[in-house]
Every structure is written in C-alpha cells, then in structure tokens.
Specification:
Layout: H1 2-9, E1 19-23, H2 54-62, H3 66-80, H4 88-120, E2 123-128, E3 131-136, E4 145-149, E5 157-163, E6 169-174, H5 175-178, E7 180-187, H6 190-193, H7 198-202, E8 206-211, E9 222-228, E10 231-237, E11 242-243, E12 248-250, E13 254-261, H8 267-270, H9 281-311, H10 315-318, H11 327-330, H12 334-349, H13 356-368, H14 370-374, E14 388-389, E15 401-407, E16 413-424, E17 427-432, E18 435-438, H15 455-466, E19 471-473, E20 495-497, H16 501-512, E21 515-521, E22 524-529, E23 532-542, E24 550-556, E25 562-568, H17 570-573, E26 577-579, H18 582-594, E27 598-607, H19 609-623, H20 629-640, E28 644-656, H21 660-669, E29 673-677, H22 682-691, E30 700-704, H23 710-726, E31 732-737, H24 738-747, H25 749-757, E32 761-765, H26 780-785, H27 793-801, E33 808-813, H28 819-824, E34 827-831, H29 838-841, E35 845-847, H30 852-889, H31 903-913, H32 915-924, H33 930-935, H34 951-976, H35 999-1021, H36 1027-1049, H37 1063-1068, H38 1071-1098, H39 1102-1112, E36 1118-1119, H40 1123-1128, H41 1131-1139, H42 1168-1181, H43 1186-1191, H44 1196-1201, ...
Parallel strand pairs: 15-29, 15-33, 26-28, 29-32, 30-31, 31-32, 33-34, 34-35
Antiparallel strand pairs: 1-8, 2-3, 2-4, 4-13, 5-11, 5-13, 6-7, 6-12, 8-9, 9-10, 14-35, 16-17, 16-28, 17-18, 19-20, 21-22, 22-23, 23-24, 24-25, 25-27, 27-28, 36-37
Helix pairs in contact: 2-4, 3-4, 3-12, 4-31, 9-12, 9-30, 13-30, 13-32, 15-16, 18-22, 19-20, 21-30, 23-24, 23-25, 30-32, 30-34, 30-35, 32-36, 34-35, 34-38, 35-36, 35-38, 41-42
C-alpha cells in the first residue's frame, strides 16, 4: 500500500530505465546482488472515483463550472450577511442541480467499477511451482507463464512461448484493440516452441529484454535469451511475437506466454486516452451570454447601491421614525455598509443568471440523443445495425457543419474487392469465367480447351499467391470474426482469412486461375499449379514500413533458389525495378487507375549465394538490436529491395456504397463542402470522385500535384488562384497529393486556404506518412486494406478549424487509421463497416452507411440546433422577465432591498413553474417536416453560421424580456395601484391610495402575469404540437394556480412566517385582478403575433415557405428543380428534368435558398454562367408560347441566381408550339 501511494504521488516510479528485464517464470539470478525491477500489478482501473474521493472530487469538478461556482458564492453570501431573501432560494436550486449531476456521474462510475471488477476477477491459469494453478487476473505478475485457451482473451501482454502446434504459431483477432476483425498469425521462437507441457516450461531458463511500455499497438522491440545446454541463444522479438491484452485466441487450442506488460502498463490500457473534450458552438455562445448577463447583474447591483445612498442623503429617508438605527449601526464603517448593501442587491438580483439552464440543457441532450438510435431510417437491415450516439454533447453541432472530411475505402465504398484486370510482362489480362485471358480475346477464342499458362503468367500468379499474409482455416468460421466469408462462393471447409479484402480477392483470383495457395505449416508454404503441388520455404518476411510502402517475402524455391517477391504501390516498386516491361506496366497502372481500380505492382529478385549470405547477416544484426531497430531494419530492407525484376500489376475494384452520389449532392446543396481524403494514386482518386459525384463532369479540375519545392508549390498556388479568379466556370475542384500538401502547409497555408475556399470540392490523394500527426502506426496488412490511407487528415482538419472563420468540421471514417481525424474534427462519425470498431468507439456518432449522413445532418442536426438554440434564448428571456420587476420595484421601496416575490416563488420559478414546457419543446419541436428537410437540403443554410444564436437574435430576446418585464410591472401598477375596491367587497379598501393594495398581493399579481406570459410566449414559438406539449404547457399554468392556492390557503406549521397566507385566494376573487391579468398578457403577446404575421408575409424565409407548403398540402404534388441541379446534368438529362414540368404557366417561385455566389451556375461576375445556362434553357424551352412564358414571370436571371422550384399539376401536359 505504501509503495502504491508513493507511486501515485510520483515519488516511486515503477520503472526508470529505458528497458526492462523479465525473467521467465520469475527465476531470478541466485548469484550477485540482483535487485528485481518493480512492475505494475495486473489490475485494470477505468473508474474515475472511489468511495473515499467521490464527494470531494465530484464537487470540485462541478464547481469548476462558472454558474455553479457563482451560485455557491451567492449562497455563502446569504449565510454570512443579512440579505433580503432566504439562503434556501439559492441553496435549494444549487443543491438540486449538484445532486442530479452527482447521481448521474456516480451511476456511470459505478458501472465502470463493476466492469473493472469483472475483468480483474476473471479466472486465469498460470504455471507456478511446476503445476498449473488457477488464480484471478489481477494476481498475474510480470514474468508469470500464463496459459490461454481457444476463444479466451489474453489477460496481459504476453510474449508467445509455445502453442499446441508444432511450429509454435497461433491465430488471434484484435478487433477490440484496433478494430481489425481479421485473423493474424503470431509466432514463438524455435527454442521455446518445443516447450508445450508444464514440466518443460518449468525447466525453461530464459530472459526477455524489451522496451518499456508504450501505447503503440504495432511496435515492440525486444530479444529473448534462452539457455540451452549451457549455451545462450539470442533471438529477436517483434510485434509478431507479442500477444496483446484484450486480443482473442482463435483456431488454436491453447498457448503459453510470459507476461511482460501488466495492468495499466499494458498497451490496451495505455490506449485508454481520454478523448479531448469537444465543446459545441452553442455551448460557447451560452457561456458568452452568461458573461453578458453577469455584467447586467453587476450593473443593476451597483446602480441600486448608488441610488440607495443618493436617496438616503436626506435625513428623513436615511433614518425614518419607524426604523430607528442602533448605535452600532450608526458607527459602522461606510465602506463596509456599501459592500454589504452591494452584496445584498447582488443576492436580490442573482436569479437573472439561470442556474437550471445547465441541467436542462444536459437533460435535453441526453434524452434527445435517443431519437437518433430510434430512427428507423438510420437502421441498416442487412447488418442489423442502428445508429449509435457515443456523446450527446454535440447534438446541435450536427446542424452547423460546413466541412465534411471523409475517408474513401469502406466509407464511400463497400470495402468488398473484386479482381478485374492485371498486367503481366507488359500485356493486359482480364478474368473471364475463372480464366486469365489477354485483353481483346474472348473465352470462345480459347476453343474451350484448358488454357496453359506461359512462364511469365505462372510466375506472376505464384508471386501473388506467395507474397501475402493470408491464412487458411478448414473449420467453419466462428462468429463474425471474418467479414469477407462466402463473398466469392468458396466452401467453408477451406476459407481464406486475410487482413484486407485486397489480399483475399487476389489470392482467390489466383486460385480460380489455377494457382492455389494451400496454406503454410511452419516455414513451408504450399501452392498448387493446376493440381501440381510445390513447396516453398519461407525464409524471411520484410514487414511493411510506412516509408517504403511495400512488403516482401524471401523464399527458397523447390529448386533451391533464394528469391524475393515484393508488392506495393507503383511509386514504391517501379523506381527500384531494373528489368521487365517498366514503361508498359506504368501505362497499364495509369489505365487501371483511370477506371477507379486499386493497383498494386509485383516484382521479384533472385539472390546469389554470396548476396543471400549478406542479406542474412544484415537482417540478423538489425533484428537483434535493442536500440534504433526500426532505422536499422529500414536500411537493411532498402538494401535488399533493389535491382528488382518487374513482373506486373493488379487492379481490383471496390464497389461504391448505395446512394453515395445522392448524399454528396445533398450535402453540397446544403452548403457543405466535402473533402475526400485517400491514399490512392491520383488517377484512381479522381476516377472514384467522379463516379461518386464528388467531382462533376462540368467542374473545372485544378491540380496541385508532384510539387518538388516550396517555391514551385507557391508558384503553382498563385497560378491556381489567378485561374479561379479569371476562369468563368460554374465550379472548381481541387486535387492535391500528399507531398504537395506537405509543402503547402509548411510555408503557404494562407495561399493554400484561399484556393481551397474557392473550390466546391477538394480531393487529397497519396497522403504521405510524413504528414502523420500523433497517430498510431499501421501494419502493411492495414496499409493494403485501406488503400495506403494515412493519418495525415488530422493536420488538414486542424488547418480548416483554425481559419479565421472557424468553420464547424465533421470527419467520417470506418478504420483505425481514421481515429485521429475523427477526434480532431468538431464532430466525428464512425462507419460500422468491415474495418472493425475502433473508429466507432472513438467517434461521437456511428452509422452503418454513408448515405445515412444526409438525414443525420439535414434532419436531426436541423432539429437539434433549433431546439437548443430556442431553449438557451428562452431561458435568458424568462429570467429577464423574472428579475427585472424586482429591480424596478426598488425604485418604489427606497431601495430597501425588499423582495417583490415570496421566497418559495423565487425558488420554484425555474425548477417547477417554467421548466417542463421548454424541456418538452426542446425534445419535440419541428419547424419543418423531416421529409421536406431531406428533399430541400438548402433549408440547412438557414441555420448555418450559428444564426439562431447570433448577437442580433440574442439582443432581440433580451430586449423582449425587458419590454415584457416593464409591461408586467407598470401594467400591474397602473391597472391595480389606484383601484381602491380591489376585492369588490371592501375588505382591502384604503383611505390612502398611495398604499396600493399590499406588497405581497402586488408581487403575486406580477408573478402570475409573468408565469402565464412566458409560458404562452413559448406556445407561440411552438410549431409542432403533441399531446405532451399541450399537457406541460397548460398543466404548468394549472399547477401554478393549484400550488399557490394550497401554499397560501393553508397555515404550514414548519414555516416561520407565512406572508402569503390567503393572498392568492383574495387576489383571484377580484374581477379587477382577472381583468388586469388578461389585459397585460394580451399587451405583451399581441405585438409578437403582429410581428410574426408581417414578417412571414413580407420577408418569409425558406423555412417559413416550406411550412406554408406543408400546411396547404401543396408539397405532396411538387417537384423541385433548381438551377444548380440542372447545371450538373448532361444536356439530355437536363431536358428530361425540365420536361417533367407539365405546365410552365404554373411556375411559382418558391424561395431564394441559394444566393448567386453559392449557386452552381453562378460566380462572382454573375454573367457568363447565366449565359451558359441560358443557352441550355433556350434550347430546351424555346418552343414555349412567349405570351404564356411571360405570364409565368420566368426570367433568366431568376433561374440563374435563385433556387427555383415549381408546382406540378399532374393532369396538365405542357403545351409546346413549333
């Protein structure tokens, strides 16, 4: 315990050296003065609190919020000095908010504790004292030999010692770590692989030396020294020897491994990074408004204090006869009196700051997030997956997105690969019915005979069949570990398992063509060529390095030759090739890319005996190095992978997901710019962008590629900027490669951003490894499956975020390499695809398909934003209405700090009387029908740029609150102040009319009018009424009346004073009071009604017009054809779209949702684009009757610079005149 406390305080770090030495089975040296290293235990702690620190830690975190801390100070002030209101008025709401939040956070942490206890208490088997002992996971120590059986998870990070297989290999899946659902093969060293029993493991003498723990899942540097017959044998250890905690053992009966990293030092625990706290634009606006209202509060308190002393300058008001001061009060310091009076006024007006705003917003976000999961339109039936909400703090941010950064493979595409074409020795081939056929030939030309492969063809197919990491299982695949099963119709009895769909597609293609990979056993790899078996000895695997962008295997052929096969990107293979059809292959690769195919280039190298001996020496030295191993391996690999003989290239197709083009088009119409980030080569990326609608055929494609220096990059950017300014085209698209992007971001960020801002679509291809930013490394397996996509997206996203406009960004991806991009963007969305779940776990939201993004933003984002924006503004409005009469009342009570409202009313106003209507409103409000929002994406622009929380809107709500408060106070004063027969029965008849009719009666009247008005004001703002809206709206008003009757109609024994006794009953018994309530409420709300009517008719917004369409029923018979939509289409399709307009006379202008600057057909000059579209319209509609056309008021300028939609009369055909 003392050691643990010292470690927590930082006085006793668990390890200080750069490496750790682990003795297998904890057999420490018996000679010398050996001091064992100290390691962490195997407990996993994901909880935040303990039973001892929950209260102080939770309170500290909650009072870091400005509003909570502010009300705590007010509460303490009320306890310390004599204030006009009871401490309960501030203490009870604060206690309510703190308690609700603490219960929520405590429950969540209790769930984490239960999960930790379940993991830490799991039974495991370890080898101790010559036998297999069962213990709990938390009791595993570094150095223990652990036994893990099939389908069990590894309880710690283990170095594999042996398995039930002779060669000492095992298969695992790391889906819970990096999201990869494929099977991966791990190896043991030959000296420990033979120790397959407990007795042999007990006699094993070995030492593992490795690096200290780090979070990188794909990096492990170490070596193992095994003492065998008195001889020490040293073997290198790498990531392929390490079994990570959280991974699961598959297709292997059992393994034994030695624990090297335990507990919170395991790689899984080190990857438990707290996601950066993302704050929405609404929250930032809310904090700004709070500061402004705090300024208003201080102003009112200071002004009231000054006016009090100004008023008391006269003796008759300073010490009236009915309130004589004591000697102590007369001798009190004037400064202290001023301070206490200021604090008293501060307490009196403190309710202008809405303490319940935070808890209401949290409840709205939490409850509102369920609607996304319940939306059946976001449910994917094939995979049985519904949308997920991982954080509800950013719901409203979905309605403010301006930039979307999307991954390509698995996000825009299905990540299901099909082999299409290949190039062998400069000749293009395609697969026809399982046969490799040269381009231009058909299956019939082969006369149905068995096609014999040439030497070059057979060598190429063998290289593809052997240069990979594919595994074979002869068992039925279990669970969903293999997402690519049965795609190509293979029997489960022999199933290929691959890290990527690319590799699986290529190996299955070679099998169909006659060269079958039959599996590997130890170092032996077997292939069958038309039934003839050949065995190759696997000598070395040259693992993927991000800088090399290729992987290789070194094999010994059946003839005894030493040969290297390599494959990778063409930029990583062709420069190192010295023979073969290099030029022809390069041309074929470009042709494949233009078709949108993913390409890989294959090559080989033969070694002489002397060369191979040098290769062995270099690899052994590099792999056994404990320091700078990666650098040494890179040098060795580069030296080996040269002087290559080019064999050919492959092209595989990745099918687009359903409705990708429609989704991207909807986002563009909504004013959202889409950036596609991919690792594919330039031609492939452009082809896919065109096919998915990211680029259009009419778009002017600009290129920033293959830049070699800063000066060259800057000059190209200037040329592009001039071209954008001078070219009169509809839209521009930009293509930038990784190397050029790196140069642009280094010295020319502003110029690069100026170009990007004027482009409707941006495509980033060939993202370079040097652009990674705090991202995890990927293995070559992932490199292939993701099309060489790297985590260079993070600096790109950060660049856009930090521009002066501060746009809201969204990143969407499906793989582990997309995590940093997802975490960097304001909103991160994970795709539940075939790349596992790491992107989903690190995202804010998760959906099954890219097409669901449209509804998530255009509908849910729209609703969430308008709901919470109205909630925030309404909260400030109703609190201004609440506290301003209190301020005005001080002018009539000599600033004596007399409260206008009863303490119970002060406490319950925000908690009970006005809380539920706005909460229900913020959950169910819909300005426009969801279907209209989806079919008219331009409505999204109406709420962009945080428009509903702009300073202008905030000022309107604030001034409206002050105006209503003045009407409440002075309306009650004017209508009731001079009424001497209030009750009608003479009970409160006053001879001196200046006494009005009582302080509490007047205050209750003002409070009653206020509750009714603010509730009805929200009712006027409500467009979508449900039974729940009616219940809470009218129920809140009824509850106030019922509560007031009970509170004032009964003498409560636990109350010290009861100033409100029978006040409310007598107030309601007066007809004059009812008349005043009705008149004041109408006076407040009638101008709002008039304003809404006039604005809706004179200056209607697009949203208001859409509401009118829905109410009048016109929307169901309408077809919307915008100028931007027509301009995107080929001429024939545009004619077809315009032909759907049955009667041009029925054209009506619907809204101006897209301005001229944003329109697809317009640009800054506003001339040539219109002329271009004018020619099209003239050709299509030139035969219309001019008289009828003039009556429809269709001008070319309106068609060009406005979003036009037309009413469709289904039964009236177009009248065309020759």
């Amino acid at each position: 315990m003392i050691r643990w406390i010292r470690q927590q305080l930082g006085f006793d770090p668990p390890h200080q050296s750069d490496t750790r030495t682990v003795y297998i089975a904890n057999k420490f040296p018996q000679h010398g003065h050996y001091t064992p290293q100290r390691f962490a235990d195997n407990r996993i702690i994901s909880s935040k609190y303990t039973i001892w620190n929950f209260v102080p830690k939770n309170l500290f975190e909650q009072f870091r919020r400005i509003a909570n801390f502010y009300f705590l100070i007010i509460f303490l002030v009320q306890l310390m000095i004599d204030t006009p209101t009871s401490p309960i008025t501030s203490g009870l709401p604060l206690f309510f908010v703190i308690t609700v939040t603490a219960i929520k956070q405590g429950y969540e942490d209790w769930l984490r504790h239960n999960a930790d206890n379940e993991v830490n208490g799991a039974p495991v088997f370890v080898v101790r004292s010559g036998s297999l002992v069962q213990t709990r996971s938390k009791n595993i120590r570094v150095g223990d030999i652990v036994r893990v059986a099939k389908d069990e998870t590894f309880p710690a990070d283990l170095v594999l010692l042996s398995s039930d297989r002779v060669e000492g290999t095992c298969h695992i899946t790391t889906a819970s770590l990096d999201g990869e659902t494929n099977l991966k093969t791990h190896y043991s060293v030959p000296e420990t692989a033979v120790s397959q029993t407990v007795s042999r493991l007990e006699s094993l003498q070995g030492v593992v030396e490795c690096q200290q723990p780090e979070a990188d899942l794909y990096r492990f540097v170490g070596r193992i020294t095994v003492t065998h017959h008195g001889e020490e044998i040293v073997r290198p250890l790498g990531p392929e020897n390490l079994l990570l905690r959280g991974a699961r053992l598959k297709n292997t009966k059992e393994i034994f491994g030695v624990a090297v990293y335990t507990g919170m030092e395991s790689k899984m625990a080190l990857n438990y990074k707290c996601k950066s706290q993302k704050r929405s634009a609404v929250e930032k606006s809310m904090n700004t408004f709070l500061i402004i209202y705090l300024g208003i509060l201080l102003f009112e308190a200071i002004l009231s204090t000054i006016l009090k002393y100004a008023w008391q300058a006269e003796d008759k008001w300073n010490e009236p006869f009915y309130n004589q001061k004591t000697d102590k009060e007369r001798d009190r310091s004037q400064i202290w009196k001023f301070i206490t009076d200021f604090l008293a006024f501060l307490v009196l007006y403190n309710f202008i700051i809405p303490i319940s705003l935070y808890v209401t917003v949290e409840m709205q976000k939490f409850l509102g997030s369920f609607f996304i999961g319940w939306d059946l339109d976001l449910y994917h039936e094939e995979s049985d997956q519904k949308a997920q909400v991982n954080t509800s703090d950013l719901n409203e941010e979905l309605g403010q997105v301006e930039y979307v950064f999307t991954d390509k493979t698995g996000t825009l595409t299905e990540n299901e690969m099909q082999f299409r074409e290949c190039s062998i020795n400069g000749i293009k081939y395609q697969e026809i019915n399982g046969k490799l056929v040269p381009e231009g030939l058909t299956e019939d030309t082969l006369d149905g005979s068995i096609h014999c492969l040439s030497h070059e063809e057979e060598l190429f197919l063998k290289a593809v069949s052997l240069c990979h990491t594919v595994q074979i299982s002869y068992d039925q695949p279990d669970g969903h570990a293999e997402p690519f099963s049965h795609i190509n119709g293979f029997s489960p009895q022999m199933e290929y398992y691959a890290s990527s769909p690319d590799e699986k597609a290529l190996v299955e293609a070679t099998k169909r063509m006659g060269v079958s990979f039959m599996g590997s056993r130890g170092e032996i790899m077997e292939v069958k060529t038309f039934g003839k078996a050949e065995k190759y000895k696997l000598l070395h695997v040259l693992e993927f390095d991000a800088n090399r962008r290729r992987m290789s295997v070194i094999l010994e052929t059946p003839a005894g030759e030493k040969m290297l096969f390599t494959k990778g990107a063409e930029s990583a293979i062709l420069p190192f090739s010295t023979s073969g059809e290099i030029d022809k292959t390069r041309v074929h690769v470009d042709e494949f890319a233009l078709k949108g195919l993913r390409t890989l280039v294959v090559a080989r190298r033969l070694f002489s005996a002397e060369e191979f001996a040098e290769v062995e020496r270099r690899l052994h030295e590099a792999r056994t190095a404990l320091h700078q191993r990666e650098e040494r391996l890179l040098q060795a690999f580069n030296n080996i992978e040269r002087d290559l003989e080019l064999l050919g290239a492959t092209g595989v197709e990745d099918k687009l997901q359903d409705k990708v083009q429609e989704t991207i088009e909807a986002l563009r119409l909504a004013g959202i710019k889409v950036w596609v980030l991919t690792g594919d080569k330039h031609e492939t990326a452009v082809s896919v962008s065109l096919s998915c609608g990211h680029f259009h055929r009419t778009m002017n494609i600009l290129e920033l590629v293959q830049q070699k220096s800063d000066s060259e990059c800057a000059e190209q950017l200037r040329r592009l900027a001039r071209r954008i300014k001078e070219d009169h085209v509809i839209q521009h698209g930009l293509v930038v490669d990784g190397a050029s992007l790196s140069l642009a971001l280094r010295e020319h960020e502003k110029l690069f951003m100026d170009v990007c801002k004027n482009c409707s679509a941006v495509l980033c291809c060939r993202m370079a490894p040097l652009q990674k930013a705090k991202a995890s490394y990927r293995t070559f397996l992932v490199f292939l499956s993701r099309g060489h996509e790297y985590e260079s997206a993070r600096p790109v996203v950060r660049l856009i975020k930090t521009t002066p406009e501060k746009p809201i960004t969204l990143a969407i991806g499906d793989g582990a390499n997309d995590v940093s991009m997802i975490q960097e963007a304001h909103v991160g969305i994970g795709i539940m695809g075939k790349e596992g779940r790491q992107a989903v776990r690190n995202s804010d939201y998760a959906i099954a398909r890219f097409k669901f993004l449209a509804k998530l933003l255009l509908v849910h984002g729209h609703f969430y934003y308008i709901r919470i924006a109205t909630l925030v503004q309404y909260f400030f409005y109703k609190n201004v209405c609440f506290i301003t009469p209190q301020f005005l009342y001080q002018f009539f009570c000599l600033f004596s700090q007399q409260t206008l409202y009863d303490s119970v009313y002060l406490t319950l106003y925000n908690i009970c009387f006005t809380s539920l209507p706005i909460l229900v409103f913020s959950l169910f409000e819909q300005l426009v029908h969801p279907h209209i929002l989806q079919t008219k994406p331009a409505l999204y622009r109406d709420i962009s740029k945080n428009s509903l929380l702009s300073f202008k809107t905030f000022l309107y709500w604030t001034l409206l609150g002050f105006c209503h408060a003045f009407v409440f106070f002075f309306g009650s004063y004017i209508l009731m102040g001079e009424d001497t027969t209030l009750m009608g029965n003479g009970q409160i008849l006053r001879a001196n009319r200046q006494l009005m009719f009582g302080n509490w009666t007047f205050g209750t009247l003002v409070f009653t009018v206020m509750v009714i008005t603010v509730t009805l004001k929200l009712a006027l703002e409500t467009h979508f009424w449900t039974w729940m809206n009616h219940f809470v709206t009218w129920g809140s008003i009824a509850f106030y009346f019922i509560f007031s009757l009970f509170y004032g109609g009964i003498i409560w024994p636990f109350l010290h004073t009861q100033d409100m006794y029978f006040v409310f009953v007598q107030l309601l018994s007066s007809g004059s009071a009812w008349f005043a309530i009705i008149i004041i409420v109408i006076t407040c709300l009638f101008p709002d009604v008039i304003k809404k009517v006039f604005y809706r008719h004179l200056h209607p917004t697009s949203t208001q017009k859409s509401q009118w369409w829905k109410r009048t029923g016109m929307y169901t018979n309408r077809v919307a054809i915008g100028d931007d939509f027509i301009a995107l289409q080929p001429l024939s399709r545009a004619k077809n779209q315009l032909g759907k307009i049955r009667n041009p006379v029925k054209f009506i202008e619907a809204y101006q949702g897209i301005g001229c600057m944003d329109s697809m057909c317009c640009f800054s000059e506003g001339r040539s684009g219109c002329a271009r579209l004018g020619g099209l319209v003239g050709r299509v509609m030139g035969r219309c009757d001019p008289a009828r056309a003039s009556r429809c008021d269709l001008s070319l300028s309106s068609l060009c610079c406005q979003q036009i939609s037309y009413k469709l009369e289904r039964d009236e055909p177009v009248t065309m005149h020759p």
